[in-house]
Automatic annotation (TrEMBL):
It is a multi-pass membrane protein. It comes from Desulfobotulus mexicanus. One of its GO terms (biological process) is sodium ion transport. Pfam families: OAD_beta (PF03977). The chain crosses the membrane at residues 12-36, 43-63, 75-97, 109-132, 162-189, 210-231, 251-272, 284-305, 353-374. InterPro entries: OadB_MmdB. It is found in: Cell membrane. GO terms for cellular component: plasma membrane. This is Sodium ion-translocating decarboxylase subunit beta. Keywords: Cell membrane, Ion transport, Membrane, Sodium, Sodium transport, Translocase, Transmembrane, Transmembrane helix, Transport. It comes from the Bacteria. Signal peptide: none annotated. The keyword Glycoprotein does not apply.
């Protein structure tokens, strides 16, 4: 009886656990805490945090339990990440949720979303200088776009072994938008600039809304064909929404499909962070560079808005440049909140959504450009 009991005990996770597993389990608990208690991106952080717990329960290799074992259930689900399947499906849902009216009402604000993508390319160069390979540097740089699906998609194509740390870094910084962006925004703008009120946008017709996803697809994907899987699904989702006759499909895209894929992506990305794979010097470098990329992208959007004001008769509030970082809609909300701290009657949310939405498109184009360039 005692030998059987000892055999049983040596097969448990309690016997096989080490300090690295404990550390990662604590990280998973922090993610769950931030999602549930602090309400930072709960739809992302709770599945990811729980996935981290799943991925760091010690198991015997060869039983088909680990996400990295061939034929395991988690391994099959993880193929949606490694083969770039989940990100386009999430973009389909985002498109079906998004109203492009604010962008169409003032197309010049698209430039702010484009300017914020400068952080991606600067971080790419920085990562190269620090010794990362071109494929790894591109995958790290895309974190600055603050768009988790885009970061996962590009990394799955260029540096699949870095999906775990890059996805965790991207979603961590997306969740921490309310913490990271305000100091940069206040540092680079004056109180007078933060108090600028913007005029009401013009009314956009239904015809414009229907034509935009079609024209947008053709223009963007002719510029960066490699962005087709992401932007094709984004614009399709938006067309389904605006066409009205396909509202049933739009509802499915923005509810059932995106919710299901978000769960699967979050859990499998979290489970991929096994301590023996995840904890290394590269992961630490990715987190540091990711934070730099995010801050630089925010700064670029703000500074470009100030540059635009040099030529505009009707000034824009430079805070909305920070919304070019495509953490939809959180960065737009942060812009609105910071503006209201200075002037409670200043409503910037709908104006900030224009660079916010163009930031999503811009990060996908940037990913396509990097992919094409490196291929």
């Amino acid at each position: 009886m005692i030998p059987l009991l000892l055999d049983f005990l040596t097969n448990t996770g309690f016997y096989m656990i080490d300090i690295l597993h404990v550390f990662m389990i604590c990280v998973g608990l922090v993610f769950i805490y931030l999602g549930i208690v602090k309400r930072y991106e709960p739809l992302l952080l709770v599945p990811i945090g729980f996935g981290i717990l799943m991925g760091n329960i010690p198991v015997f290799h060869g039983l088909g339990l680990s996400i990295y074992e061939e034929g395991s259930v988690l391994g099959y689900l993880y193929m949606g990440v490694t083969h770039g399947i989940y990100p386009p499906l999430i973009f389909l849902g985002i498109g079906a949720m998004t109203d492009f009216s604010t962008l169409l009402a003032r197309p010049s604000l698209m430039l702010l979303g484009a300017a914020a993508q400068t952080g991606i390319f600067l971080t790419f160069l920085g990562a190269l200088a620090l010794g990362f390979s071109p494929f790894e540097a591109a995958s790290i740089g895309i974190i600055g776009g603050a768009d988790g699906p885009t970061a996962i998609f590009l990394t799955s194509m260029l540096a699949p072994d870095l999906i775990g740390p890059i996805a965790i870094a991207a979603y961590s910084y997306m969740a921490l938008v309310p913490v990271i962006q305000p100091p940069v925004m206040k540092l680079l703008t004056t109180k007078k600039e933060r108090c600028i009120r913007m005029e009401e946008p013009r009314k956009v017709s239904q015809k414009e809304k229907i034509l935009f996803p079609i024209i947008g697809l053709l223009m963007c994907c002719f510029i960066a064909p490699a962005a087709l899987p992401l932007l094709g699904m984004l614009f399709l989702g938006n067309l389904l929404k605006e066409a009205v006759v396909t509202d049933r499909l739009a509802v499915a895209a923005r509810t059932v499909i995106i919710d299901t894929v978000t769960i699967l992506l979050g859990v499998t990305v979290g489970a991929s962070t096994q301590a023996d794979v995840f904890l290394n010097a590269k992961s630490i470098g990715i987190f540091v560079l990711g934070a730099a990329s995010f801050a630089v992208a925010t700064a670029c959007g703000l500074l470009f808005a100030k540059f635009m004001n040099l030529f505009l008769k009707t000034k824009i509030n430079p805070l909305i440049g920070a919304a070019g970082v495509s953490a939809v809609p959180d960065s737009a909300r942060v812009v609105h909140h910071v503006a209201q701290q200075e002037d409670p009657g200043n409503f910037l949310l709908m104006h900030a959504m224009a660079p916010n939405i163009s930031g999503v498109i811009g990060s996908a184009i940037a990913a396509g450009v990097l992919w094409s360039f490196l291929s």
